[in-house]
Amino acid sequence: MATTPQPTPEPTLTAIAGQLEQVTQGLGDIKADVDQLSQQVERFNDRLQNYEQGMRWVVQLAFTLLISATVALVVSAITFLLRS
Known about the structure:
Helices cover 85% and strands 0% of the residues. With 84 residues, it is mainly α.
C-alpha cells in the first residue's frame, strides 16, 4: 500500500516573526562588529601615520649626519692641503 506524502505545513506568522527577530538580532551583531573594526582600523591608521612620520625624521637625520660628515671631511682635506 502506497503512502501519500504529507503536505509541508506553511510557516505561520508567528514563526516568520521569530525568524525576522533572529535576522534583526544578527544584523545588530554584525553592525556592532563593523563598528568595532572601524575603530580598530582608525587606531591602526593613527599608529601607521606616527610610524611614517618617525621614519621620515630618521631618514632626514641620517642624511643630515652624512652631509655633516662629508663637509667635515672636505674641510679637513682642504685644511691639510693648505698647510702643506
